[in-house]
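Exercise 7b. Backbone tokens:
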């Protein structure tokens, strides 16, 4: 697990400033504190920060082929490298290390751009082929590992594992993209391939970008996508047996390590299943880590302890105080662009705990998307039955009127909170799902933004992303459609982003057995009723794990990894939120309607509405602006002149720099 950076001249072989390359590389020191490597020749500069996991003695990067004409910098793990080495050796390639990184250079020589189709793992890498004058960028299928890139007006290309590496160059314009702001306040993150800045991009999961010197830059190429066919006629019993076999294999591959290894154990079925499979393959006790909360409403440690006791793990628990909100600025610096999932706080803390005991941790991330584990899936399918009973022409005026008239009763028992349901029933399936996922819903965003911001959006709505993905999904099944949407949005933009930044802040590698692409492909072929059956989410996984896990762990209400935002904003953060929203950077951007910001706070503080999530997203956006010292953030500000240099990247907070 590492950090990579690079500068490439698409027009020739101009000199690359070594000091700039080193600055970009050092901005990601937390990703790889063990070793540093630089490759610098006219027109090409590559940098690498290494966290040593496999082949500790000889796996240094940048890494070369036999004649040094091909060089790679790589972040991640190729789990099937042991299978690929003999195949490549039989083709005449000579290996000088035992690292999975060397597989990449030889696979490129053997199979070209198609090499990524042979890799099984999590990865982001940049490869330079001197003979072909080609720069090849690639990202893994599920987007576990990040890769940012940008083309400067002078023909130079920048790339790195984190956006801060590109910002550290000094030449990247920082004009904020209004569409990204719209996306962020709808979803809580900036979805791929956009970043918060118009000048930078994320390479989307399952995509490559092949740049050849002297030729126009092509669009990124998609080499993989999940296909929810649902056409596998396997019986439920056989599916359970096969699932256990596939989980075992996926866990086995991710237990290859030359450094201490463990697992996150939240007390949910996903992480518990991973721990159960690890225990079955371990000769000694598995290391497990959990976070406890002093607020019982958010604490799952008693369930984690049941699994730890059953498998006699070496179990470590760290307590997080319910007022652990001092990480706001640290998180803003860590994520580089606005990010509003408040569970980033406990995730940061559990990674901090794990790193004290292990260097590699397995997680249960990805299970909700593939096994249909979210509560919102169950609610969406219940709404689908109602939508199927009445045509949209009837539903839209009927439930639209009810949705407008019914009060927003956040304070009431759940069964009385019908406003959101009425609003969903007035929409088509995709719009309804987008509505349920939105932090600021359509009517709220219309009031949130200033007239100038709405003008710059030009009619763009964040829901366009969901509609585009639904068209691409290739299925008419409503459950499969929203699973597909989540695989491309929430999993990548929220979950994987959260875990990557939080783990790398502490130089911890996190591996994800439930995101093995072969497992995801197989699950996508299964009928939807094996995943969500009679209101039971993750039905197949739970049935398969019944011999392995306590009943209470699997068949209980899902709690999530949450923090008490409502209480924070009514108490210790009340004044801080007011200052941030009305007296901080938000007002100077020209993006927001101040009167509506005041209305949000008044409604929340009076107890009439629970605006916890919207207020948190605003607080994190303000922290992003303040901590980042960004230019070009006013909605009315014209784009900067071509070639205008932005300030060098912001310094890494001391809390991160120590790791």
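Sequence design result:
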């Amino acid at each position: 697990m590492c950090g990579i950076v690079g500068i490439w001249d698409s027009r020739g072989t101009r000199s690359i400033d070594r000091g700039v390359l080193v600055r970009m590389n050092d901005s990601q020191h937390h990703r790889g504190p063990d070793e540093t490597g630089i490759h610098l020749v006219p027109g090409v500069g590559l940098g690498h920060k290494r966290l040593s996991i496999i082949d500790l003695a000889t796996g240094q990067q940048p890494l070369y082929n036999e004649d040094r004409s091909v060089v790679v910098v790589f972040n991640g793990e190729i789990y099937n490298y042991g299978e690929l080495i003999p195949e490549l050796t039989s083709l005449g390639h000579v290996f000088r290390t035992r690292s999975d990184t060397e597989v990449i250079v030889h696979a490129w020589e053997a199979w070209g751009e198609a090499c990524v189709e042979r890799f099984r793992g999590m990865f982001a890498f940049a490869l330079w082929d001197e003979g072909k004058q080609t720069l090849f960028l690639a990202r893994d299928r599920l987007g576990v590992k990040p890769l940012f890139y940008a083309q400067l007006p002078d023909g130079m290309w920048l790339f790195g594992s984190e956006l801060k590496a590109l910002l550290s160059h000094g030449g990247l314009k920082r004009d904020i993209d209004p569409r990204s702001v719209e996306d962020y306040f709808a979803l809580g993150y900036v979805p791929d391939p956009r970043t918060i800045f118009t000048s930078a991009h994320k390479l989307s999961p399952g995509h490559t970008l092949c740049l050849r010197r002297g030729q126009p830059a092509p669009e990124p190429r998609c080499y993989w996508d999940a296909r929810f066919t649902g056409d596998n006629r396997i019986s439920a019993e056989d599916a359970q047996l096969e699932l256990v076999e596939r989980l075992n294999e996926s866990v086995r591959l991710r237990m290859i390590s030359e450094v201490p290894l463990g697992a996150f154990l939240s007390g949910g079925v996903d992480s518990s299943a991973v721990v159960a499979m690890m225990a079955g393959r371990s000769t000694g006790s598995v290391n497990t880590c959990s976070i406890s909360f002093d607020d019982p409403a958010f604490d799952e440690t008693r369930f984690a302890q049941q699994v730890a006791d059953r498998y006699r793990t070496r179990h470590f628990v760290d307590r997080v105080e319910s007022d652990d909100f001092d990480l706001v600025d640290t998180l803003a610096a860590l994520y580089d662009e606005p990010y509003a999932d408040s569970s980033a706080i406990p995730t940061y803390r559990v990674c901090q705990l794990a790193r004290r005991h292990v260097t590699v941790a397995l997680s249960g991330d990805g299970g909700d998307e593939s096994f249909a584990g979210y509560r919102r899936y169950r609610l969406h399918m219940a709404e689908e039955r109602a939508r199927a009973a009445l045509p949209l022409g009837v539903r839209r005026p009927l439930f639209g009127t009810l949705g407008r008239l019914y009060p927003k009763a956040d304070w009431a028992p759940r069964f009385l909170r019908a406003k959101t349901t009425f609003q969903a029933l007035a929409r088509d399936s995709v719009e309804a799902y987008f509505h349920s996922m939105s932090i600021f819903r359509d009517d709220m965003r219309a009031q949130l933004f200033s007239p100038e911001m709405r003008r710059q959006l030009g009619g763009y709505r964040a829901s366009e992303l969901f509609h585009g993905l639904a068209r691409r999904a290739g299925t008419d099944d409503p459950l499969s459609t929203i699973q597909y949407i989540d695989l491309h949005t929430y999993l990548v933009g929220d979950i994987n982003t959260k875990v990557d930044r939080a783990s790398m802040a502490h130089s911890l590698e996190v591996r994800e057995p439930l995101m093995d692409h072969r497992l995801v492909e197989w699950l996508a072929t299964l009928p939807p009723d094996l995943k969500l059956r009679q209101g039971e989410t993750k039905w197949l996984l739970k049935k398969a794990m019944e011999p392995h896990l306590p009943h209470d762990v699997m068949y209980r209400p899902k709690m999530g990894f949450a923090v008490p935002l409502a209480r924070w904003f009514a108490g210790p953060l009340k004044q801080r939120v007011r200052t941030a929203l009305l007296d901080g950077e938000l007002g100077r951007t020209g993006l927001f309607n101040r009167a509506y910001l005041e209305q949000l706070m008044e409604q929340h503080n009076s107890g009439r509405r629970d605006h916890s999530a919207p207020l948190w997203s605003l607080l994190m956006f303000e922290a992003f602006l303040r901590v980042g010292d960004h230019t070009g953030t006013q909605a009315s500000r014209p784009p900067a002149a071509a070639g205008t240099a932005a300030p060098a990247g912001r310094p890494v907070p001391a809390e991160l720099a120590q790791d």
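Instructor comment: The chain has 29 helices and 17 strands. The chain has three domains: 2-174+193-224, 225-561, 565-628.
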